[in-house]
Amino acid sequence: MNFKDSGACVTQCPQTSVYNPATFQMETNRDGKYTYGAFCVKKCPHNFVVDISSCVRACPSPKMEVEENGIKTCKPCTDICPKACDGIGTGSLMYAQTVDSSNIDKFINCTKINGNLIFLVTGIRGDPYHTIEAIDPQNLHVFQTVREITGFLNIQSWPENMTDFSVFSNLVTIGGRALYSGLSLLILKQQGIRSLQFQSLKHISAGNVYITDNSNLCYYHTINWTSLFSSPNQKTVIHRNKRPENCSKYFAHG
């Protein structure tokens, strides 16, 4: 395989570390570059992870993702790695369309989702055509351990007796390494939802936010969405939810 390095075609990118025979040590190569797809780049995109000299979507086992000096890198786990699980459309769930009763147990004790979480009506209410039963709403609490979704969160269906997304109260980061039509967070037409309850959300690293047509949703305006973004190009489309003046003044975060 060949790579493009500043317009030149090369068999490999300049290595980020080189061996110094005088010191018998590996040293940083100032001219080194990272492999990013078919390109050689001086630094990886902010929502990718550095694994030695490559830009990757997720760290391989048995490594874990850590942040050093603002750069996400893959490091060997010193003990048991935080549990990373495949998201919808990834790995063991490559052919899944939605979280449903047949696959929700795969998310038990997961701290990180490599990929996306998608909630469609065929998952929440069941899919008789494929003999998949409706999800037991209590089982959605498996997501309380999730701190990061590397792709996007797409919610187009939710149990009628659940009025918020507090099962994601420990979610800190939505990575946006994969996007749904340019979106990293989509919440659409959920009339039973009254508040978001994304109490720990700190970062939406790429992609836009679309929260629309949720007629009873309050307190979305209490979140400073732009403070969560990594790029000035990221946008929010938040409309046709409940008007803030019609919501109680007593509320929890989002």
TrEMBL record:
Q: Give residue ranges for domain Furin-like cysteine-rich.
A: 2-86
> Its membrane topology, per UniProt?
Single-pass type I membrane protein
Catalyzed reactions per annotation? L-tyrosyl-[protein] + ATP = O-phospho-L-tyrosyl-[protein] + ADP + H(+)
Compartmental location: Membrane
Keyword Acetylation carried by entry: no
Q: Which UniProt keywords apply?
A: ATP-binding, Glycoprotein, Kinase, Membrane, Nucleotide-binding, Phosphoprotein, Receptor, Transferase, Transmembrane, Transmembrane helix, Tyrosine-protein kinase
Q: Which residues form the signal peptide?
A: none
| Start and end residues of each Receptor L-domain domain | 109-228
Lineage of source species:
Eukaryota, Metazoa, Chordata, Craniata, Vertebrata
Give the protein name, as stated in the record.
receptor protein-tyrosine kinase
Enzyme class name: transferase
Could you tell me one molecular function GO term of this UniProt entry? ATP binding
The EC designation for this entry is 2.7.10.1
User: Organism source for this protein?
Assistant: Ophiophagus hannah
A single Gene Ontology CC annotation of this entry is: membrane
Q: Matching InterPro entries, A to Z? A: Furin-like_Cys-rich_dom (IPR006211), Growth_fac_rcpt_cys_sf (IPR009030), Rcpt_L-dom (IPR000494), Rcpt_L-dom_sf (IPR036941)
Which Gene3D superfamilies does the UniProt entry name for this protein?
Hormone Receptor, Insulin-like Growth Factor Receptor 1, Chain A, domain 2 (2.10.220.10), Receptor L-domain (3.80.20.20)
- Pfam families recorded: Furin-like, Recep_L_domain
